[in-house]
Write a structure and sequence with these properties.
Oligomer: single chain
Distance between the termini: 19 Å
Largest sheet: 2 strands, antiparallel
Strand order of the largest sheet: 1-4
Shape: globular
Number of strands: 4
Order of helices and strands: HEEEEHHHHHHHHH
Number of helices: 10
Helix content: 55-70%
């Protein structure tokens, strides 16, 4: 395969631009004046290259949004299987939680689990975005419902492959000093120690404990994001509130998408966090939950239906900027790769 074959452009499509109803994904792209308008070309990149670009883009976004991930994890574990009002609330909201973590654990506490979070983002979103792009190149997304199915399938594959990294990330982000600790404390010394400890105690299968909560979580989130971001961006563009290349169009679309994803994905996110963080017995079985449905039932019985929506605030506040940043970085890098390839062809 020559360099010219690695990146192909098509003037009819852009992976994340607003398209007709059968194409549900849209991309953030820089307009000619530095704004965010419709991308002039879809980049059907060579899959390994697309994987790398998607991974790098989401890792860059993760650096900015990781503190919200720490706060989300703490809020979701606070008052686990206890009725409202029967436990001490260390965290009372997003801003207050950020202040408490920063004051108690320091600025490094707000970036707990960042290194393994980057591994997770690189693996999960690299596979997710790369697989979706490959499905689009094969023409699968052109069929009715193809984009939703491709987004869900790509998300499930990425979640399964990256599950061990999410497991360790959850353990590390839940760890804190006793004064503000919530949930089970695994007391790992670091990323490598966490992987080694889990492997020695539970074996290779133990590294995938909790994956039954992660796969539906990412499937729902991925499908919802791909559907709502496009629809919202198309609606805002047709409303003509802003100039065609305004970055506000993308910002509003990402915010609307963030609300939809936060509402639909938060219950799955809470269950996933609980399954990942729960302690295990000598038989490698979870001490609190037996699986996805058991966790959902116990949370509803002990904490009420609202227990499934713990941490929705930071989930939303993280999703909107993460959506904009990751898709923007991905689109810009793909266009730069295409530009470099065209320059090489001319020379």
């Amino acid at each position: 395969m020559t360099d010219a074959q690695l990146l192909k452009t098509s003037p009819e499509e852009s992976l994340f631009d607003a398209q007709p109803s059968h194409r549900m994904a849209s991309t953030v792209s820089a307009g000619p004046r530095g704004g965010f308008g419709q991308s002039p070309a879809h980049l059907a990149a060579w899959p390994p290259l697309d994987f790398a670009l998607g991974a790098l883009a989401c890792c860059a976004a993760c650096v900015f949004t990781n503190p919200l991930e720490v706060v989300k994890t703490r809020l979701q574990l606070q008052g686990e299987l206890r009725a409202r009002g029967s436990y001490q609330r260390h965290y009372r909201g997003v801003l207050q939680a950020l202040w408490v973590v920063g004051r108690t654990d320091g600025l490094r506490g707000l970036q707990k689990g960042l290194s393994v979070g980057l591994i997770y983002q690189g693996l999960m979103n690299g596979v997710r975005l790369g697989s979706y792009s490959y499905c689009e190149a094969l023409g699968i997304t052109s069929f009715h419902g193809g984009s939703l199915l491709s987004g869900a399938g790509a998300g499930a594959l990425g979640a399964f492959i990256a599950s061990p990294a999410y497991l360790v990330k959850t353990h590390l982000q839940a760890q804190s000093v006793e004064a503000i600790a919530v949930g089970h404390q695994h007391n790992h010394l670091g990323v490598s120690d966490a992987f080694i400890t889990i492997y020695r105690r539970d074996g290779l299968i133990g590294l995938w404990r909790g994956v039954n909560g992660a796969v539906p979580r990412v499937m729902v989130g991925s499908a919802t994001q791909l559907a709502t971001f496009t629809s919202a961006k198309d609606w805002v563009s047709h409303s003509q509130w802003f100039s065609p290349n305004s970055w506000l169009t993308v910002l509003i679309a990402a915010a609307i998408s963030g609300v939809a994803v936060a509402i639909s994905m938060t219950p799955f996110d809470v269950i996933s966090t609980r399954l990942y963080n729960q302690p295990v017995d000598e038989f490698r079985r979870g001490q609190l939950y037996h699986g996805f449905s058991d966790c959902m039932l116990k949370v509803c019985q002990a904490e009420g239906l609202l227990g499934l929506y713990k941490g929705m605030g930071p989930v939303f506040l993280r999703l909107a900027p993460h959506t904009v940043l990751s898709l923007l970085f991905w689109d810009l890098m793909r266009h730069q790769a295409a530009k470099n390839n065209q320059n090489q062809e001319r020379s």
